[in-house]
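Worked example 3 (structure in, sequence out).
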C-alpha cells in the first residue's frame, strides 16, 4: 500500500472534518459521503501519477511533441477515469458525456495541475531540477517565444492562490465544472441532450 497516498487521504479527511466542524453549518450525511467518495476516487486514480513522468527526448521538436502527446493523453485518461467514478456522469447519455469531456477537459486539466504546483519554487512537486529544465527546453523548442508556457504558469499561479491549493475544494471544483456546459466558451459546443446535465 502507498503510504504517501494514505497520508494524503488521511490529511484530506482531517482537513474536511476541521472545515465542516468549524463552518458553523452542518453537512448532510449524504453530502459528506459524496465528498469522501470524490476524494477517495481521485486519490486512488492519481496515486501513481508520477510514474507517467518518464524521461523524455527533447533532441528535436518532433520527438518532444510525440512525448508530450503521449503524456497529455495519459493525463487526460486519468481525469476521464476519475469522472467515470461519478455516478451522475455515468448516468448521462454517451453523447453528453463525450461533449462535456471534449469541451471541458482542457480547463479541468489546468485546475487539476494546481494540486501539484509548489508556489515557493514555481515548479511542480516531485520534479527533479533536470526535469524542470527539460520541460522548459521542451516549451522553448515547441512554442518558441510565443509565451504559452508563461501564460499557462500564470494561470496555475493565480488559481493556486485563489484556491489556496485546497485539495478538497479543487476536487469538488473538478466535478462541478465537468458538468458546466459552456466552460470552454466555444460557440460550436452542441446542446446537451440530458436536461440533468
Amino acid at each position: 500500500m502507498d503510504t504517501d497516498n494514505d497520508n494524503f487521504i488521511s490529511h484530506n479527511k482531517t482537513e474536511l472534518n476541521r472545515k465542516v466542524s468549524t463552518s458553523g453549518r452542518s453537512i448532510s450525511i449524504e453530502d459528506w459521503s459524496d465528498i469522501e467518495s470524490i476524494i477517495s476516487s481521485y486519490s486512488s486514480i492519481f496515486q501513481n501519477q508520477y510514474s507517467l513522468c518518464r524521461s523524455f527526448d527533447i533532441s528535436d521538436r518532433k520527438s518532444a511533441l510525440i512525448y508530450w502527446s503521449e503524456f497529455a493523453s495519459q493525463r487526460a485518461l486519468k481525469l476521464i477515469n476519475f469522472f467515470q467514478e461519478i455516478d451522475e456522469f455515468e448516468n448521462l447519455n454517451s453523447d453528453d458525456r463525450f461533449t462535456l469531456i471534449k469541451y471541458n477537459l482542457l480547463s479541468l486539466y489546468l485546475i487539476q495541475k494546481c494540486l501539484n504546483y509548489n508556489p515557493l519554487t514555481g515548479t511542480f512537486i516531485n520534479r527533479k531540477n533536470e526535469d524542470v529544465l527539460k520541460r522548459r527546453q521542451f516549451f522553448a523548442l515547441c512554442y518558441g517565444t510565443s509565451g504559452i508556457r508563461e501564460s499557462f504558469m500564470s494561470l496555475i499561479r493565480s488559481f493556486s492562490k485563489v484556491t489556496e491549493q485546497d485539495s478538497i475544494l479543487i476536487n469538488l471544483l473538478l466535478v462541478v465544472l465537468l458538468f458546466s456546459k459552456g466552460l470552454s466558451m466555444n460557440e460550436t459546443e452542441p446542446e446537451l441532450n440530458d436536461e440533468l446535465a
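Notes: The CA atoms of residues 107 and 184 lie 7 Å apart. The first helix runs from residue 3 to 22.
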